[in-house]
Each structure stands twice: as structure tokens, then as C-alpha cells.
Amino acid sequence: MMGDSSDADSEELQQELVKVVRIRDELFGLPHACAACGSTSAKLEVAHVVAWSTGSETAMREYGLIDGLYSTRNGFQLCRGCHWYYEQRHWHVRTLDDGTENIVVSDALLALEQTLPDEVRRFTRLHGKALGLPAPSARGRDGWPTPEMWKAQRSLCEAARVARRPVREPMLGRCARCDKPYTSIAALRKHKDDCEGAARLRRKRAATCARATALLEVMRRYIEALADGEPDTDSVLSADTRFDRADVAVAAAAHAAAGKPGKRC
């Protein structure tokens, strides 16, 4: 029952993220289109800039995501196809010195598309293209991905590139559940239904969601304590056995990384 509850919480958080990211994009005058390929006809999904597998604690410590992995800053809109290849570590975003954010496609995917007709070489056309988001100078820092956040996906893509090397046959990617390599989308779909790693992945996602909820509660208590003066660890913990002193330290570090004042004027 606990796993079902955590899955429901995760789905609720994702739905809220979709809602606020779409409102943010509308306020900045962005078209209802995929930020990568520009498609306006496909149903859009909200992708996580910093992958959920990073973990809420790392997201708060290293990227200042006080609201965890479901922070508005951690989302951007993609069509289903671009989102799928993003999660499979086949492309990432590189921030240039002038702030421009360009798409970088994996060598494996580019090589695979060389065997296809020109008109269907979708990611070959996207390689080096600017991402469809407002220029960093026009959007500010709050509510939008930062260069540090994009680097998280770049690191995952590099790790995936190294993992593909030992495979002699051309490999498109690996199953996110059991890490089995596959050479085509059709092969992955056939394998997906009977993957033994599916249950393990669901449990990991449920644990990640539960941890995120707990850290958010600690952060809320910490900020309330800051408003009344210097926070006392024991007062933040209270009698709640779900948290420990390490959680309070994470909350303090994340709050400091965000650079927000704690006391009310």
C-alpha cells in the first residue's frame, strides 16, 4: 500500500510540474511547441533537466533545487519522441560562453541516422541547433534551468557513451529498467513488457518520491525557524522520527545555495 501511495504522490507532483511549466512558458510568450524539434502538433510532455535518478538530496545540495526534482526550474517541454531520446541519454544541452543553449546529439544516434533517408534524419538536423527557450539574459535565473543543471544531463550522456563502447553491434541504448542493450526501438518495446527490472524501478521511484517529500517538510520547518531567529536543530526535528540531524544539514545547505534571505522584514 505504501508503494501505491508514493506512486500516487509522484504522479501528483509531476502533474503540478506540468501545469506550472506551461504557465511559465506562456508568461514568457513561448509557443506551445517542443523546445528541441519545434513540433506544435505533437502532445507535449515535461522533461526533467536534472534526471529523477539524481535523487532529491543531490538535487538540493548541488543544484539549489529547494523544491526538489519537481521544481519549476527543473522542467522544460518536449514532444514524446525528443523526451524519450533525452531520457535515453542520446542528447544533452551545452551552454556556450554567450549563454546560447545548443543541442548536442550522441555519436551513436547520429551514426544510426546515417543509414536512414535524409528526410527522416531528425536528430541530425537538431544537432547544434539552439534550444527553443528564451535567452538566459531575457529570462533571469529564477524559474529556469541553469548551466549547472544542464551539465548534469551531459554527465549522464557521457557515462552512457562509455557504456556503449564495449558492444560490438550498433547499439541504440539500454533498457532503463535492467540495463540490457538494444539496437532498435522495436527490440526495446518487445523486451519492455517482460522486463524483470520493472518492479525494482518502481520501488526506486517510490523511495525517491518519499525521500523528496520528507526533505521538503524539513526545509519548510527550517525556513519557519529562520524567520523566528537562528534555527535550533532540535526544534526543527521536534518529535518527528522521520528526520535526523543530517536532513536538517541538507536543508540548511540547500537554503544557503539558493541565496534567499531567511528572516522576514
Number of domains: 1
Q: Please tally the β strands and state the result.
A: 6
Spatial gap, N to C terminus: 44 Å
Shape: globular
Compute the gyration radius: what is it? Answer: 20 Å
Number of helices: 11
Oligomer: single chain
What class, by secondary structure content? Answer: mainly alpha
Average of the residue pLDDT scores: 78
Walk me through the structure.
The chain is mainly alpha-helical and 265 residues long. The protein has one domain. Helix content is 50%, strand content 9%. The chain has helices spanning 2-27, 56-63, 80-87, 107-113, 122-126, 136-139, 147-164, 185-192, 198-227, 233-237, 245-258, and strands at residues 44-48, 75-79, 91-95, 101-105, 173-174, 181-182. The strands form 3 sheets. A two-stranded antiparallel sheet has the order 1-2. A hairpin with a 6-residue loop joins strand 5 (173-174) and strand 6. Helix 9 (198-227) packs across helix 11 (245-258). The longest helix is centred in the last third of the chain and has 30 residues, at 198-227. Residues 1-5 and 260-265 have low confidence and may be disordered.
Task: Give short descriptive properties of this protein.
265 residues; mainly alpha; two-stranded antiparallel ribbon; disordered N terminus
Overview in brief:
This protein has helices at 2-27, 56-63, 80-87, 107-113, 122-126, 136-139, 147-164, 185-192, 198-227, 233-237, 245-258, and strands at residues 44-48, 75-79, 91-95, 101-105, 173-174, 181-182.
